[in-house]
Amino acid sequence: MTPTLHLLTRIIKQNLLIILIAIFSCIVLSININKPFIGHHDWNGAFWGVQARNYLSFSSSLLSYGNNVSFGGIFFSHYTPLLPALFSISVAIFGERELSLRLVPLIFSVVMIIFIYKIGQELFDKKTGLLASLLASVIPMFVYFGKLPDHEPIVVSLVTIAFYFYVKSFGKNQENYRLFLVFLFLALFESWPAFFLLPPILAFSLFVKRDSLKKSMMPIIIGIFVVLIHLSVILFTKSAIDLYSFIGQGLFRIGGNVNYYGAVDKSTPYKWIETESRYFVIYYTRLLLLFSLIWIVRLLWEIKKKEKMQRKLSLIILFIYPCLFLLTFRQLVYIHDYKIYHFLPFITLSSAASVVGLAKFFMKSTKKIFKSNSMRTLFSYLIILFIIFSVSIERIKYLLTLENTSFNSPGYQLGLLIKEKTKSDDSILVNSLQFKEFFEVIINYYANRNIEYQNLTMKEFNEHSEQYYNYDYIVLIEDRDIDPSLKKLLDSNYYLEKSGPYMFFNLNKTSAIN
Question: Do 286 and 394 meet the contact criterion of CB atoms below 8 Å apart?
Fold first, then answer.
């Protein structure tokens, strides 16, 4: 056996359990990985899929020395360009399909599972790390949203890695601290929730670790640098109006009025707390939340007793930062249930620590009942397995419902039909503002055409006929608002192709009746 192969074999043997857990997490995330973007919050995948397509068009334009596409025209200024750039790389390698977009968060989520294990091992012991990573792999929050093509699976993974190196830097380990700063920069550059990591990190560094002010301020300086980069990109590639829009959107998300497209009424604080509590219960399970709460209570008790616990106390950072995010962006988290994904590392690590503590307590308290140490060990492992099983099945029906959601199917169907029946340079008018409100993002991704929406009437068509004749197709949809006179006119003068409820009128081709 060669030295390299011997080293590899030893590494696999030493880390076999976490490797198996990582493989298991990859398998559960692979469920429906190529499913069309028709399910719960799948509009994120369609939205970033369009962004990735635009980025690749921009890259092609640069490589061909053309000026057809400008970066300002494709740059979504509400976030930095890192996320669409990652999706673009995956799409360029694997092609334009759902798997390509879901593969990016899947990879980051599996990496997060590994670093949850490493944090557990560092702060507690190897058993706690393994249990935390396994618990994370079976809860609905991870199984469904761990492959969601959006910020959360990626930024939470980067935050978890950054936190691991922060913990490893205790004891003045400069190499690990530099790695912490690198991954902190990537997390901050990926998405804004990571900025809420800065206050607890600063406070912990100053008052618990007793670092120098200069060292403690380094994360803050990096945060300011990231903000300045983003604002500069907006100003240089777009305009001051877009800068105001970026700031205004942030203020809107902070606001207490959660009325969004008329879907949610203005909430009261009680309603907000009730809604968020339900999100936690259905995505993290009651059992896991109970054990996490037990860990917090025990931590407070140990603080009161003034026990030395710097490393263990650092875990509270992963609790404080999502709390700050949750309380600041109340509107955002109210209408997006998956934003509580940021609590995943803390809840799984703290609950695992409580479960392992329970098992140790069982071992000590049953010495008189079970004389055999191996028998006590067996029962303690059975308790842990029972808890894992209970967590995995508590919300299994809800998880299966999530995996089978398909309420964006109309947008998916229409998008495919538009792509099938029209050419890439055709201009299409869909006669339904209701479809625009609910399915525009989905339609844009699957159709990849120039599409506009309007509730067109016969009167408007006659008054502005020259404008409407610029379209190549007008699409009417059954069971939506249709002017009968307009339908009659189009039906008798233009070629009709009907697929289900969708009627495609080709304005460049006359009706067979004529």
Answer: yes
Q: In 3D, which of 165, 183, 453, 420 has the Cα closest to residue 314?
A: 165
Residue 8 counted as domain residue? no
Of the residues 402, 437, 454, the one at which a domain ends: 402
Distances (CA, A) of 28 to 109, 386, 403: 11, 20, 11
- Of the given ranges (51-60, 144-153, 217-226, 313-322), which has the lowest mean pLDDT? 51-60
Residue holding tokens 């710097």? Answer: 310
Pairing of strands 427-430, 494-499: unpaired
Residue 191: predicted pLDDT: 94
Residue with tokens 């899947």, as numbered in its chain: 106
Over residues 18-26, mean pLDDT: 98
Sequence-distant (6+) residues with CB within 8 A of 192 are 79, 250
Looking at the structure, tell me whether residues 449 and 300 fall in a common domain: no
| Mean pLDDT calculated for residue range 86-114 | 97
- Among residues 357, 384, 402, the one where a domain terminates is 402
Structure confidence at residue 125 (pLDDT) = 95
Helices within 238-309 (DSSP H only): 240-254, 269-284, 286-304
> What confidence score (pLDDT) does residue 260 get?
46
State how far the Cα of 496 lies from the Cα of 148, in Å rounded to an integer: 38
Tell me the average pLDDT across 496-509. Answer: 94
**360 and 462 share one domain:** no
CA distance 500 to 497: 10
Give SS3 for 510. strand
Distances (CA, A) of 9 to 1, 22, 251, 336: 10, 17, 53, 44
Q: Which of 327, 335, 195, 331 is nearest to 252 (CA)?
A: 331
- The one-letter code for the residue type at 329 is F
What whole-number distance in Å separates Cα of residue 84 and Cα of residue 506?
Answer: 35
Q: What are phi and psi of 430, to 5 degrees?
A: -95, 120
What pLDDT, on the 0 to 100 scale, is given for residue 456? Answer: 93
Sheet holding 473-477, edge to edge: 450-453, 427-430, 473-477, 502-510, 494-499
Nearest to 129 by CA among 119, 144, 139: 119
Q: Which domain holds residue 494?
A: 409-510
What digits encode the pLDDT tens for the residues 266-309? 567 888 999 999 999 999 999 999 999 999 999 998 887 665 67
User: For the CA atoms of the chain, what is the radius of gyration?
Assistant: 27
For residue 262, what pLDDT is reported?
42
Shared-domain flag, residues 162 and 288:
yes
Q: Are both 195 and 49 inside the same structural domain? A: yes
Whole-angstrom CA distances from 387 to 71, 356, 370 are 51, 11, 21
Distance of alpha carbon 375 from alpha carbon 310, whole angstroms: 35
Does residue 65 surpass a pLDDT of 80?
Answer: no
Q: Determine the pLDDT at residue 307.
A: 59
More confident site: 280 or 463: 280
Q: Which residue has the higher pLDDT, 61 or 102?
A: 102
